[in-house]
Amino acid sequence: MADKYRICVPTVARKEVLREMHDAPSSGHFCVDRTYIRAAQDFTWKSLRQDVEWFVSTCGPCQRNKAYTARARGIPNPLEAPDGRWQAVALDLVSLAESAAGYDAAVVFTNMFTKQIFCAPVRMKGTTAEKVAELFILHVFRTQGLPKVLLSDRDSRRQVYFRLLGATL
Ligand SMILES: [Zn+2]
To answer: Nearest CA to 28 among 58, 57, 61?
Structure first.
């Protein structure tokens, strides 16, 4: 594995890769270790192992198979949101190759509990705090209300986005 090139996968495409490695017809719902080994042969990113663990632990068919056993043992699911709403949300601004329509980035809002995502294509240059706030309201706030927690890194621009939404950082 060490002398082979691996693809560094951007955030927006990771779920697709994990799905392919775990539950595509050729995969058949592999366990965490097997899914990880398969993914790590061709792909890489910092949180790959954690993301595989999360993906498998939230996979519907796998959950249904294990639900009985887990309940019997009384193991709580740490990823379970109390009511499934968007209580903790992360924001990513990802640069992409420019599309025919002139978009060269995507704003990605991630529900940290379910990892459900909303993506909106944007032009990096025109992505002002107001624009991000508008997308947030359109994609998240309108249906989910204001989350309790908004996760941001130290990137000052993102902090501005969140401050505009009235969040305490
Ligand atoms: Zn599965």
So the answer is: 61
* Span 45-96, pLDDT tens digits: 889 999 999 998 888 888 777 654 444 444 444 444 445 566 677 777 777 7
CATH code (residue 113): 3.30.420.10
- Same-domain status, 68 and 94: no
19 Cα to the center of ligand 1, angstroms: 9
Output the CA 76–ligand 1 centroid distance in Å: 19
Domain with 56, as residue range(s), is 7-73
Mean pLDDT of the residues in the chain: 73
Number of domains forming the structure of the chain: 2
Residues 65 and 103 in one domain: no
Environment of ion ligand 1 (residues, CB < 5 A):
23, 29, 59, 61-62
